[in-house]
From TrEMBL:
Taxonomic lineage of the native organism: Bacteria, Bacillati, Actinomycetota, Actinomycetes, Kitasatosporales
InterPro entries membership: Rv2466c-like, Thioredoxin-like_sf
Pfam families noted in UniProt: Rv2466c-like
SUPFAM superfamilies cross-referenced by the UniProt entry: Thioredoxin-like (SSF52833)
Name assigned to this protein: DSBA oxidoreductase
C-alpha cells in the first residue's frame, strides 16, 4: 500500500466518462486528495457506451437513451488528447462535467463548444462527437482501465502503484457529496488500505442520496 505520509509523489490513474454523475463526484474528491496527499491524478477516458454496447437489450429504456448521448463527449475528449496532448483531458473533463452536472446544461454541440473554448481548445474539436476517427484509441483507453477491475463495474476506475510494486486498482469509491480536507485524506487512506488487501473485493451499502454537486 502507498504510504500516505511519504514525500514521493504518486500518480493515480483515473478513468472517467464525462456523463457519469458518480464518476464526477469521485473526480472532485480526487482533486481534494491532490491537496492533502502527495498524489497527482492522470486523467483517462473510459466509455459507458463501450462498456454496455453488447447488453443494450438488458438495460432500462432511459439508460439506453443516455448511452446514445454518451459517445459524443468521450470522442471529443479522446480527440483532444490525441491532437493536443494527454494533459488536456483533466481541464476539459472539469469544463464538461461542471456544465453537465452542476449546471445541468444540455448534452449538445453548444455545450461541447463552450467547454472546449473555456480551456483554450479549438471549437471544431466538437466535430469529433459524430466521428469514429479515434474510436480505436477510445476503446484502447477504456480497455486499459476496465481490465484492471473486470467487466462487472463501471466508471470511475482508479489505479495506483502499491508499496510492494504491485498495482492497486479499484472501482469507485462512490460518494456524495465529495469529501474535502481531512475527510478526503481519510477516505483516500482507507480506500488504499482495503483495496491493497489480497482477496478483498467489495464493500457496499444501498445509496440513499442522489449526487450532491454543491
Amino acid at each position: 500500500m502507498t504510504d500516505p505520509q511519504q514525500n514521493t509523489e504518486v500518480t493515480a490513474d483515473f478513468w472517467f466518462d464525462p456523463l457519469c454523475p458518480w464518476a464526477w463526484m469521485t473526480s472532485r474528491w480526487m482533486l481534494e486528495v491532490e491537496k492533502v496527499r502527495p498524489v497527482r491524478v492522470r486523467w483517462n477516458v473510459m466509455s459507458l457506451a463501450v462498456l454496455n454496447e453488447d447488453r443494450l437489450d438488458e438495460l432500462p429504456e432511459g439508460y439506453r437513451e443516455l448511452l446514445t448521448q454518451a459517445w459524443g463527449p468521450v470522442r471529443v475528449v479522446i480527440a483532444a488528447q490525441q491532437l493536443h496532448g494527454a494533459e488536456v483531458a483533466g481541464p476539459l473533463y472539469t469544463a464538461l462535467g461542471t456544465r453537465y452536472h452542476n449546471q445541468q446544461q444540455p448534452k449538445d454541440r453548444a455545450t461541447l463548444v463552450a467547454a472546449l473554448e473555456e480551456v483554450g481548445l479549438p471549437a471544431d474539436l466538437a466535430d469529433y462527437a459524430d466521428k469514429d476517427t479515434y474510436d480505436a484509441e477510445l476503446r484502447a483507453s477504456h480497455a486499459a482501465g476496465i481490465t484492471k477491475v473486470g467487466q462487472d463495474v463501471g466508471t470511475p476506475v482508479i489505479a495506483v502503484p502499491g508499496a510492494d510494486g504491485e498495482e492497486v486498482a479499484f472501482f469507485g469509491p462512490v460518494v456524495t457529496p465529495a469529501p474535502k480536507g481531512d475527510q478526503a485524506a481519510a477516505l483516500w487512506d482507507g480506500t488504499l488500505l482495503v483495496a491493497s488487501v489480497p482477496g478483498f473485493y467489495e464493500l457496499k451499502r444501498t445509496r440513499t442520496a442522489e449526487p450532491s454537486f454543491d
